Amino acid sequence: MFADLHLHTNFSDGTYTPEQLAQEAKRCGLKAIALTDHDTVEGCPRMSAACQALGVEFIPASELTAELNDFEIHLLGYFLDTENATLLGELAKFQEVRQRRIREMVQRINEHGIPLQEETVFKLANCRSPGRPHVARALVQEGFCGGLDEAFERFLKKGRPAWVPKFKMFARDAIELVHQAGGLAVLAHPALNRNDDLIPPLVEMGLDGLECYHTKHTPSATENYLQMAKRHHLLVTGGSDCHGLSKGKPLIGTVKLPYQRVELLKNRVIQQAAERGFKLAGSPPQSSS
After folding, report:
1. Domain identity same for 102 and 16
2. How many other β-carbons are positioned within 10 Å of the β-carbon of residue 194?
3. In 3D, which of 94, 96, 104, 33 has the Cα closest to residue 64?
4. Are strands 235-239 and 257-258 parallel, antiparallel or unpaired?
5. What is the mean pLDDT of residues 128-153?
6. Most CB atoms within 10 A, among 19, 92, 146, 243?
7. Are residues 68 and 172 in the same domain?
8. Nearest-angstrom CA–CA distance, 32 and 11
9. Predicted confidence (pLDDT) per residue in 31-71, tens digit
10. Do 6 and 86 fall within a single domain?
11. Over 60: is that where the pLDDT of 287 sits?
């Protein structure tokens, strides 16, 4: 029995609807999945309903962008209370910043002679949490670039003409935001940070786990982070970071986290929920009886 705990839908920069993603999870034989859309939990109610109908266990989650010592990191918050007022208030701020970032990107593209309209990007994104992939898709859709790779190379990568820095909250604040919403804070794809020195201070701030299994982790990187998680008494998670069909073949199910790791996550969040007076977030699989 396996899980995939890093997945995106069209509520951020994925292409699948929650229902389509749930169907893909069922097709892959996954026992449990988490929805980790960027800076939003809006897709979680639909995903929960779709998973319950299919007998797939669902964990509500989100991926937050944070900063530590001038390094950008991504934090995955699992078992979030999706009706938590503080969480929703902060996510709304992040979404507004994302929308402003899109407008600035489009303006910079316009300044280089490309008449892309911001309305085109927002219509294509059709969500409150747009990102660079939506700008790239719009450039391709309107015929200004031949593909997504070209769009990023010409305009959207760091150092390119339309690159705009992300808003990043302080890592400690992000961890505290996850905890006050009843969740567990996990460092996403640590190998991509290329700075393992960030992990000990994050642990001191209350980090709960490491995403040891990831599509872009080599076997040696996975083993390194498994050992690091053991050394720091951290939980272990993993996921494919699937964004649907935006990058060709969907990645869902290509990273298989043993379900025992999910049980350990649930045990920890139940323990913390009891200590803090929270109710466990998530939907159990539908009974087969």
Report:
1. no
2. 8
3. 94
4. unpaired
5. 95
6. 243
7. yes
8. 20
9. 999 999 999 999 999 999 999 999 999 999 999 999 999 99
10. yes
11. no
List the structure tokens of 68: 């530590």
Domain that holds residue 148: 96-156
The single-letter code of the amino acid at 24 is: E
Residue 135: Cβ within 10 Å count: 27
**H or E element, residue 64:** strand 57-68
At which of 110, 125, 156 does a domain end?
Answer: 156
pLDDT at 95 over 70: yes
Side-chain-facing half-sphere of 28: CA atoms under 13 Å: 24
> What's the pLDDT score for residue 244?
93
Domain of 144: which CATH number?
A: 1.10.150
Outline where the chain has alpha helix (H). 18-27, 44-54, 85-111, 118-125, 132-141, 148-151, 171-180, 199-204, 219-231, 259-276
What is the number of other CB atoms lying within 10 angstroms of the CB of residue 6? Answer: 29
Q: Determine which helix (DSSP H) or strand (DSSP E) holds 183, and give its type and residue range.
A: none
What pLDDT, in 10s, does the model give residues 263-282?
A: 999 999 988 878 877 666 66
Both 206 and 70 in a single domain? yes
Say which CATH number the domain at 191 has. Answer: 3.20.20.140
Structurally, the chain folds into a number of domains equal to 2
pLDDT (tens digit per residue) in 147-199: 999 999 999 999 999 999 988 899 999 999 999 999 999 999 999 999 999 99
- Does residue 180 sit in helix, strand or coil? helix
